[in-house]
Amino acid sequence: MKKINYKDNLNLNFAVIIFILSLLFLIGTINNGNLIFKNTSVAGINLSGKNKTEAKKTLQDAVKNYEGFKFGDKTILPQEAGVNFDVESTLNKVYFYGRNSSLPVGLWERMAANFTKRNYELETKIDEKQLSSFLSKKTDDYNTASEDYSLAWDNGLKIKPEIPGKRLLITDTKEQMLENARFLKDDQALKTETVTTNKSVKDLESANLFKQTESSITVVLDSRKWEINPATLAEWIIFENSTQNAGLSSYIWPFLKPTSFKLSLDDNKINIFLEKIAKEVNITPQNAMLTIVDGKATVFAPSRDGYMVDVADGNSKIKDAFIADDRTASLKVNKKPAEVREDNLNNLGIKELIATGTSNFVGSPSNRVHNVKNGASKFSGLIIDPGQIFSFNKLVGAVDASTGYVEGLVIKDFKTVPEYGGGLCQVSTTMFRTALNAGLPIIERYPHAYPVQYYSPVGTDSTVYDPNPDLKFKNDTDAHILIQYNVTGTILKFEFYGTKTAKTVKFSGNEDGSAAVDRAENLKPTIFDQDKKGKGSLTALWWRFIYEGNKLVRQDKFYSAYDSPDKYPH
């Protein structure tokens, strides 16, 4: 009898199985052609039996008709949040199911297609930067702070309950948005949580807190008194809490509620109260006023020290009085010496008059005159440190009714219109000329849009408007510079006191320095392009020459192009 070779039979059987599987794979391929297998969906949309072209159109229509993400009562398009659909990649993934190059895998997938339903997600492309920016903005829109329990005075002290806040959960919201996009869901994407303080009204009512608010606090300074009544105290009160063994307990059980409460006062509200008192009682230090006697700076009006309410100390004393039987808080004042005094003139280097500058505002209406005088006063007694860059806009401060200005004409947005501070450029122009005459480096300066009658000679003006344009120059001397001003008739004059240098300053409308003068106010600039841009338009050109002895050490060119006034109607 011939011996059976089991190994050969096994190989034969395996070959037959492979043949049958291949035949089934081939038959399945022929039968399905280029169609998507049955039981196939994308985002719940049935694509079974469709070819790629049909499936692509079906998905594109679905994406086009997708309304977007629900955010509260609003709807946001995916593209606004940086979420874009990739239909092509989705189709490739779906189509190649059952067409895997591996025969066993492909056959298994085809068999499974007959018995199991598959719902694929839509592939998406995420712009993470845009999505993060979107969520950050939504955080600002939807986050609301909780309002703590507070006290109110209504025929006695009453507890006003807490108003919970709301916080956007960024990670949860992002995940829901992407889930909605992948399956074209219209579920609410906005995920928030309520923010509370974990205090209960019962806890507060059971605590003996109200005794501190039953009587007024008296704030005292010398013979003056200010009352903080119970109603005001109720508005200032904040709650502070503590937890027994807080460090260990909060670590083991982070949601442990506070077990004790105390009342405290809001620092900011106390400080606002004290700052109002300070405005009443503070004495501003006054620098010594100087004049020139025998060529030297001499004091003709002595300095005066200032006295300022110590707000931090007052805050502490009001809090002490709040919890004490003695309901009195005594204010402390601190002495603030003047910057320029009889005893420190030489130390500051303020020895002599180093420069003056003038301008004439003749013909100005009364409101403009008021603004000129008010603006100039802001610089009285101002000290410019060695090396400091003077910024007109920074040092003049706010320009509005609260700082003493009235409306006057300004050039703005191709119009001449009334605004607070109109006329302040008379001050900046005069300051510019003083800095020029002192030989100080001009860092920044701009001419007006058109020639203005108050700024003769033309080309020596300086326009300012917060925050720009600005006038800037540098104190390049080794000494401090003190600014003083005076108004005589219609002449505004600034005086710079400091220590003279070896510099000599000249001005000329000619580049070669011919016909030079000693002061900017007296120069005759070169004028050209008159009426080229309309009636009254022109360009002014002049130079400043700075010498040390007979040596020219610096030459500055000042070019000012002016438009026609007709283009800036009143």
TrEMBL record:
Amino-acid biosynthesis as UniProt keyword: no
Keyword flag Membrane: yes
One Pfam family of this chain: VanW
Stretches assigned to the YoaR-like putative peptidoglycan binding domain: 75-180, 257-325
Keywords: Membrane, Transmembrane, Transmembrane helix
Transmembrane segments: 12-30
Superkingdom as given in the UniProt entry: Bacteria
Protein name: VanW family protein
